[in-house]
Amino acid sequence: MEDIWQIGSFIIHKEWVAAGVSLLLAFGVLRYIGCFAKDDHRKKDVIGNMLFVFILVYQLSSFLFQTSLAFRYPISVLASPGTWKEWTAGWIAAGIYLAVASRSEKKLYFEAALYSVLIYILTEFFFLSYQIYSQTASAALVMHMTAAGLVFLAFLFLKNKLSYEYLLYILLFFYGMVMSAYSFIFPAKALFLYMPAWFFVCVASVGTAGFLSAWIRRGKAVDKK
């Protein structure tokens, strides 16, 4: 029972606490490097609401994917970490919210999407650091943490050279490709959930399609001039 704290009948998983602390550290890093200005309340609200929508759908969608258990053990289903299905549903819901919230603000859409991806990647980096510290360090954990770190370093290198749109698609492609390769060697996780290899292939595909679309649109705009 080393992985939990128990207060009476109430159980707290240490991994959940570690994930929460990692999330706060991720926000802190992005604020430190200037991604969040003090008066930029609109962007902060959208990203905060995206996180809320993601967590809400991620937790509640377990009732859809585990219907038979949900009627008999609703509390257990709600407290379970879920699977890639709930994880995917949460991200789709967060993406839909972002599209609606920023439907007339293209810059806000790509900026919020980019920073949300970075928040997740940094959260994953710090969470993996905790796992390496609290467990026996393994090649899988070190490689996964290194992959997350490299994606963030790529952002730091490119952030003053490209638009938010191009940065978003490049990071999605880079992260998806690195994790796709990783998942063929080790079981890949998104924080504490095991994810199928095709999930990361889809992430890389979205990045590729988005980048090509943006590049073609830019070419057409230049031709019109």
- Structural class determined from secondary elements: mainly alpha
Secondary-structure element order, N to C: EEHHHHHHHHHEEH
What radius of gyration results from the CA coordinates? 19 Å
Name the average pLDDT: 85
Strand elements, count: 4
The main sheet orders its strands as 1-2
State the helical fraction: over 70%
**Shape by Cα distribution:** globular
Unreliable spans: none
Largest sheet: 2 strands, antiparallel
Span between termini: 66 Å
Strand percentage: 5-15%
Transmembrane segments: 16-34, 46-64, 84-100, 112-133, 139-159, 166-185, 191-216
Keywords: Membrane, Transmembrane, Transmembrane helix
Could you describe the 3D structure shown?
The chain is mainly alpha-helical and 225 residues long. The protein has helices at 14-32, 41-60, 62-65, 67-72, 74-79, 84-101, 106-134, 139-158, 164-183, 197-224; strands at residues 4-7, 10-13, 189-190, 193-194. Strands 1-2 form a two-stranded antiparallel sheet. It has a two-stranded antiparallel ribbon with strand order 3-4. Helix 1 (14-32) crosses helix 7 (106-134). The protein is globular and about 65 Å long.
